[in-house]
Amino acid sequence: MEGIEAAFRATADPVGARVRVRFEGELDEATTEVAWSVVETAAERDGSDIELDLSQVTFMSSVGLAVLIRCQSLVEEPRRLVLVEPSPIVRRVLTVTDTAQLFEIEPPDAAPPAGDTVAGAA
Fold it and tell me: Rounded distance, CA 56 to CA 7, Å?
């Protein structure tokens, strides 16, 4: 378990009317349980929007993407789930999978362009 902890860290802190959840490291099959647990706990805070700070994510597999999509189910209107400053690897996964439109992303210029294509993809 020591190697997993070294490869991934998830924290949650209140920031005004929001809870900021920060993921650091590799978001993949080995770490999604920890990630989900932290987001689930953050979602229990009444009325709070959730910010997912993804600026320090160094790798994200399809299982990691599934966790982000699943996080949407925890946040019901009028609450919001916001992806904050997704790292280049997160933006790439959102682009390749054409899933960026599923999320609110801040700042807006951190979102992959709609219809962006991957070099070499047909």
Answer: 11
